[in-house]
Amino acid sequence: MRGLKGKNILVTGGASGIGQATAARFLEEGCAVCVLDSSAEARARVTEELPELTGVIDTDVANLEQVQAAFVEAIDLMGSVDVLINNAGISIRHDFLDITPDEWDAVLGVNLKGVFYVAQAAARHMMDKGSGVILNTASTGGTTGYPHYADYCAAKGGVIALTHAMALELAPVVRVNAISPGYVLTPMQRAEYTDEMLNAVNRKIPMGRHASPEEIAGLFAFLASEDAAFATGHVYVMDGAETTGGLCSQWAHE
User: Fold this and answer.
1) Is 239 in contact with 180 (CB distance < 8 Å)?
2) Nearest to 169 by CA among 138, 126, 201
3) Does the annotation count 117 as an active-site position?
4) What is the total count of domains within the chain?
5) Domain residues for 248?
6) With contact defined as beta carbons under 8 Å apart, do 210 and 184 qualify?
7) Can you list the alpha helix ranges (DSSP code H) found in 97-193?
8) Does 2 fall in a domain?
9) CATH number for the domain harbouring residue 102
10) Are the C-beta atoms of residues 231 and 177 closer than 8 Å to each other?
11) Residue 148 exposure: Cα atoms within 13 Å on the Cβ side
12) pLDDT tens track of the chain, all 254 residues?
């Protein structure tokens, strides 16, 4: 992609799934990359699998003090942050009537409050230096809703609205977009779905399969590049045409 070589990239939730694939893609593009992640196991593994990373920083994005300290560390390691991939997220599969206040707070804390904390830290830095790109990970669940994930969907809907508002306020200095994946075959997805559930979902997607994390990473690379220099304020759906045909709603009622 044009204009990515030599850029400094920060990826939250960067030690697994979409985040790790995105970190790997930016390394391939010739960037310096730091990842933030709260899982010690995942941090150890990504350090071994992606030894070219500039930094792997222990961070709970729902904790403002940790976010602020991690951002200072990332700038110390790389010199600046040119692109933020605001990707950290969690999910808990449960019925709406069974969601506890603690579970609600945990999911919204990472998936919405955490996105805000990291985005604000990045935006302040980028506005001061005169340029930057912020890319948030949303979800088709934030626009259509999915059964058993009410808290996750609520958070991702908030990410979409936050992305729109940020883009308007930060233009023309900082570009802000979101990617809204459908079903992606990540470790988080694999942990919550049986093979039978995965196959049932695949039958409802016109492309006949889940996306790979690397496919989402490719869209992140494009949106961060100079090829997307006029792209801001939008949410880019990558779901294999799942929502185009309203298939997720059909599945939700079966």
Assistant:
1) yes
2) 126
3) no
4) 1
5) 8-252
6) yes
7) 101-108, 114-129, 141-144, 150-170, 187-192
8) no
9) 3.40.50.720
10) yes
11) 10
12) 899 999 999 999 999 999 999 999 999 999 999 999 999 999 999 999 999 999 999 999 999 999 999 999 999 999 999 999 999 999 999 999 999 999 999 999 999 999 999 999 999 999 999 999 999 999 999 999 899 999 999 999 999 999 999 999 999 999 999 999 999 998 878 788 888 989 988 888 999 999 999 999 999 999 999 999 999 999 999 999 998 876 554 544 44
How is residue 204 written in tokens? 């409802």
Residues 6+ apart with CB under 8 A from 136: 86, 87, 115, 119, 159, 162, 163, 176, 177, 178, 179
- Token pair for 62: 């729902």
Residue with tokens 């709970």: 60
Other beta carbons within 10 Å of 45: 16
Active-site option among 152, 183, 193, 236:
152
Rounded Cα–Cα distance for residues 6 and 225 (Å): 12
Does residue 3 belong to any structural domain of this protein?
no
Q: What is the rounded CA–CA span in Å between residue 242 and residue 246?
A: 7
CA-wise closest residue to 121 among 157, 159, 89, 80: 80
The CA-based dihedral angle spanning residues 52, 221, 240, 175, taken in that order and rounded to the nearest 10 degrees:
140
Dihedral, CA of residue 43, residue 48, residue 50 and residue 53, to nearest 10: 60
Quick check: helix, strand or coil at residue 58? strand
DSSP 139: -
